[in-house]
Every structure is written in structure tokens, then in C-alpha cells.
Description:
The complex is a heterodimer of chains A (435) and B (241).
Chain A: H1 2-19, H2 21-59, E1 63-68, H3 72-76, E2 84-86, H4 91-100, E3 104-119, E4 122-131, H5 135-138, E5 141-146, H6 151-155, E6 160-164, H7 165-171, E7 181-184, E8 187-197, H8 202-218, E9 225-229, H9 230-237, E10 240-245, E11 249-254, E12 259-264, H10 270-284, E13 290-293, H11 295-338, H12 340-348, H13 353-389, H14 398-424, H15 428-433
Parallel strand pairs in A: 2-11, 4-9, 6-8
Antiparallel strand pairs in A: 1-12, 1-13, 3-4, 3-7, 3-12, 5-8, 6-9, 7-8, 10-11
Helix pairs in contact in A: 1-13, 2-11, 2-13, 2-14, 4-10, 11-14, 13-14
Chain B: H1 4-7, E1 15-28, E2 31-44, E3 48-52, H2 59-66, E4 74-79, E5 82-83, H3 89-99, E6 100-103, H4 115-125, H5 130-143, H6 159-171, E7 177-181, H7 189-204, E8 208-212, H8 216-221, E9 224-229, E10 232-238
Parallel strand pairs in B: 3-8, 3-9, 6-7, 7-8
Antiparallel strand pairs in B: 1-2, 1-4, 4-5, 9-10
Helix pairs in contact in B: 4-5, 4-6, 5-6, 6-7
Bound molecules: adenosine-5'-diphosphate (ADP) and magnesium ion.
Amino acid sequence: MVGFRIKRIIKLGIKSLWMHRLRSTLTALGIIFGVSSVIAMLAIGEGASRDAQEKIAQLGSRNIIIRTMQPPEDKAATGQQQILKEYGLTYNDAERFQNGIPDVQVIVPNRRLSQQALYRNRRASIEVIGTVPWYPEISSVRTKFGRFLSTTDMRYKRGVCVVDERVVKEMFAFDDPLGQDVKIGADYYRVVGVAAEQVKSKASAADKDKDATGSKKAAGGNVGGIYIPLTTVKDRFGEMTLQASSATGMSLERVQLQEIIVQVQDIDQVLPTRQSVETLISRFHKKNDYEIVVPLELMRQARDFQRIFTIVLGSIAAISLLVGGIGIMNIMMATVSERTQEIGIRRALGAKKRDIVIQFLSETLLLTLSGGVLGIILGSLIPWAVSHFSEMRTVITSGSLALAFGISTAVGIVFGLYPACRAANMDPIDSLRHE
Amino acid sequence: MIEFREALTFDKNSPTLVMKDLYKSYQLGTVELRVLRDINLTITSGEYVAIMGPSGSGKSTLLNLIGCLDRPTGGDYLLGGHSVGTLDDDQLSMIRGACVGFVFQSFKLIAQLNILENIEIPMYYQGYSEQASAARAIELAEMVGLGDRTRHRPSELSGGQQQRVAIARALANDPLIILADEPTGNLDSASGTDILKILDRLHSEGKTLIVVTHDEHIATRAQRVIRLLDGRIVQVQVNER
Ligand SMILES: Nc1ncnc2c1ncn2[C@@H]1O[C@H](COP(=O)(O)OP(=O)(O)O)[C@@H](O)[C@H]1O
Ligand SMILES: [Mg+2]
């Protein structure tokens, strides 16, 4: 009985809206744009946030990364240039972390340098990463084929390497890289494994590709990384690098390690350990030639920023919905006064006030709900188009859809109730007389 | 909730409505304007009553009161034994829907709805099913001779036809009283005569008819003519048959 009644109410409502279809469409536009902007903005915000979160998570949430930096005074001094600049993290630092900080579980010292690699006639700019066998433990790098570097490789300073997937793609084309020799610098290295950064989702897989192409242009033109035992790198490349700078021509730098990555067992130990690292390192590095990066902190900052971002975007979208709602109320008021006589007739023929409220409220609700549905469709297309035509990632959450739909319903009720009540409370005789 | 249909059980001998010392006034600023005063009136079931009087004498106001579109300012109005003054808005709506059929001078059809849908309005508010109300609407349209025009809009019909639709609509819920406010006022004499014939037929079927009119010709068809002047009943004339 009730369901049957509702069906007729909806039918009548649709009929009435159809009679004024241009007006109904224009009215619904406000809600359509409101809802679609809510969804689109939240999707863009959410995409940006997940992007940031994942990038940071790849750095490792239990990690503390200490990086070598060129000390500020070296950069500033233009007059008296030293021929040899010596700075940065050392093997001693790594040892001090190992022995001095109890919570440290894993410690990975890395030496990174840009080199040219040659395989057959293919040449590519790559990054040599001199590292230790347990590097995969603290990173998202995983061996896909073959094996990673071993302790034996380390001990005997073997000329072996593990190549990044991206390097494989660039240099080996259809050849199986395992067992091949790659020339890096002056020496040959045998490929013992292929590694790849572990990717969490499909979306970030697409992202990774973009990253790869993006960084190819940006970061020194590296195609990817080649992992070589740290001991081998120290032995064959030394610690000196020749740096070309526009101001002074050539200069020589001596850096032992580019980074030391320290991992603790528990998330709770990250911040205290960071403190210990800081105290320890500042005692030996007066020159301020390092930086400490804590992915966990970055993650928290990103999350805080994201919250603000969402609130701001949400408020803008809410305002547009409010404007849409006011538009609807305005139209419904006009509709009510235009249909005064109809209301009088219906009242004379037995309609209760409630019936009139239901009639007008259902029209408003139909308008906002259909606006909501169209808004959801449009709002889902916008992020799709954004991801498709730019490199921005977007994520539509079911929560944002529910929110948008809920808001459009609420707008319908809130802004429809007043005109509907006004219609119902008009005096039947007065409204009958109204022409 | 009171079931008014039952309260107004059709009884030829007991009065359908009784008005005692009834008055109606409008407040215009600080001035109280008495539009109806000292109305004492009893109308029995099945009666055909005409209300006459010059323009502004309160005929429509009286008819609206009878039809429960309005409430008296003072005095008693008993409809089927129920005091209308004490009923709430929902109950008045129920009486209007179930027991009263209105016919207006300017038809008052809803322009956007077709003939069938216009006739269905009173049934919609009485909770008829879609099929039942559609079937009855077709029956009523045929009864007033418009069975072939059910899908037309009111604007596509002549005045006389529109008024016939209005009568069909008034009959939808099989009301106990039919109230007509100058039903032929907007019609040419031929269409007017059609309408009057329909009213006569309804009377002969036992309906209670109360018709406001300027037309002495109509008045002669009624059993009783009540004449109003300045809100008072000045004469009650009984037509002998
Ligand atoms: N809502 C109202 N407010 C004030 N005066 C009214 C109102 N309705 C009717 N009147 C007055 O009541 C008197 C009777 O009106 P009405 O019943 O329409 O007369 P009739 O139908 O006999 O021409 C008129 O003088 C009219 O101006
Ligand atoms: Mg009148």
C-alpha cells in the first residue's frame, strides 16, 4: 500500500518535472555541478594523497635515511675554491650507528654515482649503487630473476652486478641479461640478477612508469640503477669524483658514502632513534654536510597536509552545493506561487496539507536526486579525464560518492521543505481564487 | 480518526446539514467585516437548493462554509451531526474529499493534466488504486458525454465540456452534497442548459444539490430558493412541483 503510494507520488513528480523540463534541467544543473565538483575534488585530493603516501612508504616507514649533502659554506665560497673538497658520510659513521644506537636492526651504507654503462653497442647513463647484500631488506627493491648481491661477492670484491628492470628494458632488449657482462667505467661486471622496485597496486604501476620516464628527463638522465657490491665500488671507483661546475671549472670531491639507511624494528622506535642518530652524527660532522630524512615523519606531514587540503576542497564544493540548493529553493518558491491555483484545487478536492507537502517535496527530491546521480556520473568522469590527460592520479572512494549523494538528498530536503510547507499552508479559498 | 462517510449515512428524513446562528467575519486591519450573519439553515438529504442574491451578498462564502473549505467565525454548523467548527484541518480535508463535490464557475481544472487525470484527483486523495480510479474516471467521463475526449487537455475543450469534466470530477467520490457556485456563469445558454440537465439528473438520483446562481431560470428548477442580502437570509421560497 505504502510502496504503491510512493510509486504514484514519484510518477506524478516526474510528470510535473517533465512538464517544465527546461526549468527542471537548469535547476538540477546547480546540484549536478555541486555534486560533481565534490567528487572530482575529493578524488584529486585522495589521489594526490595516496601518491604521496605510497612514495613515502617506498622509502620505508621504519627507516631513517641519512644523506650526504654538500656543506653550505662550500657552495657559498666563490673566491677561494679548494681543489679537493672532502665531506659527507663515512664508513666510520656507519660503524658508529651500528655500535652506538641499540635499536638499530639493519644498517645499509650506500655509495651512489652516475656512470655510463655499455653492453654490446648499447650505451646508457645509469646510477651505480654500491650497496650491501641486505639492501632489499630495507627497501622495496626485490630480485626478480637470478639473485641479489651476496656476502661472498662483498668479501671477494667480485665484479658482479644486479641490474634494474628499467636498465634491462633500455639496454638488453630481447637478450637475457643474466650472465652477460656490462662495462661500467673501466671494468666489466657480470649480471647475476634482475631487480625491480616492488609495486603495490595497478595504479601505482602506471605511476611508476611515468616516474621512470619523468626521472629520465630530470635526475641527471639516468635510465635506472645497477647494484654492485660496496666493496667492489670502493675498490674500483675510489672515493674521488671529478665535478664539473660552471663557476670554477673542474673540482675534485671526496665522498665516502652517499647515504646510510638505518632500520629499527618497531615504528615507535623511529623518532627516538632519529634523535640518537642526530646527536651522534652532529658530534662528528661540524660542517653540516648531511641531512636526515624520516619517511614516517614525511608520511605524517603529508597526512596532515592532506587533511587541510580535503577540508579546503570540501568547503569549496560544499559552498557550490549550497548555491545549488538556494537555486532550487528559489525555483521551487516560484513554482509554488505559479501553481497556487492548482494547490487550491487539490485542497478543495480533499488533499491534506501533508499531501501538498509530499507533492512538492517529492518534486524537489526527485530534482536533487537525479541531479545527484548525474553529478556522480559527471564527477566520476572528471577525475578519469584528469588522470587520462595529465599525469595526476585520482582516486574515487565510495565514501565520497555516498557523501555527495547524501548531501544532494539533504539539500533537497532542507531547501525543498520550506517552499512545500508554504504551499501547504496557503488558505484553500485564497489559492482557489488566485489566477 | 472519525470515519465521516459513516457519520453521514444517507437518511432521507434526517437533515444533512444544520446551521444555527452562524456568522462569518473577516478582519480587515482593525475593522471586522461581517460577511455572513444570523444564518439559520437546515438542508435535508436529497434536496435541491438554490442560493441567490446580488454580487457581494455572501453566496460564495456561504457555499465555502457548507463545503468545509472554511470555518464559521461563530455559531454552529453541524454536518452529519458533526460540529465543523471543532474539526481540524485534516478532518476538513477528509470531509471535502469524501462527502463534498465542488463545481466552480471557472471550472478550475488543472491545465497540465488531461481530462482523465483531472477527474482522478479526488480519488487519488481517497487512496483509490490506479486501476480502480482510472476505470471510474472513464465511466464518469462517459456519463457526462466526454468518453471520447479523455486524453485531451482542458484547453482543447469548450467551456461547456470543461464544466462537464468538473461535474464528473465532483462526482468521483460519490459525494453526499454537490456544491455548485454559478456553474453556468461562464457558459453560453446552450451549454448552460446541458449543465442544468445534468444537475437535474443528479437530483433525481437522490443527490443533495446546492447551487449558487444569478439566474432565476435555474432557481425555478430548485425545490427551495434561499435569497441573501448583505450576508443575511432575507427570503426562503419553496417551489411547488
Ligand atoms: N478573504 C476575504 N477577506 C475580506 N473580505 C472578503 C473575503 N472574502 C470575501 N470577502 C467579502 O465578503 C463579501 C462576500 O463575498 P462573496 O461571498 O464572494 O460574495 P458573492 O459570492 O455573493 O458575490 C464581499 O463583500 C467580499 O468582499
Ligand atoms: Mg461569488
